[in-house]
C-alpha cells in the first residue's frame, strides 16, 4: 500500500509485483550510509523524459525495534508529509512494499555538515553565519507548525550543490500541543547534542531543547570538535550546567565577540533564560551580514504558511497516533519485528569505551539513543 504523496503512483495491486519500484519509475542505486534505522542509497526517479536525482531511505520494519515502528516511524511519516520549507529536505514520495518502507527525498549533493567539516576543516565565521541562519529559520518554521525535531545535529544537516543547508531526519520529531510547555518526556536525541534538561529526564520543553542542539551545532561548525565530554554523562551534565566549555584557542582568537555571545546565550543551561529563535535571528551576530537581516520572499512565504496552518490538524494527528490508528501503525503494528531493548542499545553504544575522560571531545558520528530513565542517577556501567 502507498502512504505517500506522489500523485502519479498506481494502485495497490500493481505494487505487489516484485519489480514494483522499477515499474513505478524508481531505480535504487549505490549505498550512501547505514542509518540508525535503515540504509540510505542514491536513487533515480524517471518520469517521461524527466530524470530526478533522489536519495532513498530504506526502512525494513522487521529489522528495527518495535518501539521505533509503533511510535517514532508513524510520527516521522506524519511530519514529513506536512512540511515544506526552503531549508528542510524535500520528501518526494513514500512507498511501502511488504514490511519495507522507501522514503524518497531530494539528493543533497554535498553530503552532511559533519562530513563537510571533517573533510574541509572548521567553517569560516561568515559561512557558519549563513548556514546557521538557514538552519534557525528551518527550526522556527517547525516550531511554528508545533513540531519539535529532537535530533538536530551536524549529521542531519545536508548541503546542496549550491551550498544551501537542508535539515533532515525526522525520526525523533513529533507534533506537540502548543498549550503544553513541558511537552516531551522521552530522552531522545544524540547525546552530544542533548540539553541538560533532557539529561535529567524530567519532562522538558522540546522546542527549547532543540535550541540547545542548535548551539552545539554552531559550536561544532566553528571548532570542529564537540563542546562536552560525551563518554561520561555525569561529567557532561556538570560541564553543561557549570558552563565548563571553551573554544579551541586558535579559533577563539579569530572569531567575533558577537558569535561568542550568541553561542554562550544558546548554551544557557537554564531553559527559560536560553535565547529564543527570534533573539538568535535578530542578534548582532546575524546582523553583521546586512544581506541576512531581511527574510527573502521564499523564507517569509514558508513562515506565513506555517502560521496559517490550522492548528486543529495537528491535534487530530496527535489523537490518531495516540489511538494507534495511523495508517502505518495499522499495517506495521501487526508485525513483530525483532525487538532490541533500550538498555541493550545503550550498552552497545557505551560498552566500547568506558573511560572516564575522553581525550578531547572529538568529532565523530553521533549515535542516537532513546531512554526513559534518569541517566544521571542510574548506578550502572554506562556512567
Ligand atoms: N537527501 C540526502 N542527500 C544526501 N545525503 C543524505 C540524504 N539523506 C541522508 N543522507 C546521508 O545519510 C545519513 C543518514 O540519513 P538520515 O536520514 O539522517 O538517517 P538516520 O535516521 O539513519 O540517521 C545522513 O547523515 C547523510 O549523511
Ligand atoms: Mg540521521
From TrEMBL:
Endpoints of the signal sequence: none
GO CC terms in record: cytoplasm
Matches recorded under CDD domains: STKc_TSSK-like
Pfam family for this entry, one: Pkinase
A GO MF term: ATP binding
Ranges for domain Protein kinase: 26-286
One BP term from GO: microtubule cytoskeleton organization
Domain of life: Eukaryota
Cited InterPro entries: Kinase-like_dom_sf (IPR011009), Prot_kinase_dom (IPR000719), Ser/Thr_kinase_AS (IPR008271)
Keywords on record: ATP-binding, Kinase, Nucleotide-binding, Serine/threonine-protein kinase, Transferase
TM region positions: none
Protein name, per record: Testis-specific serine/threonine-protein kinase 2-like
Organism: Aphis craccivora (Cowpea aphid)
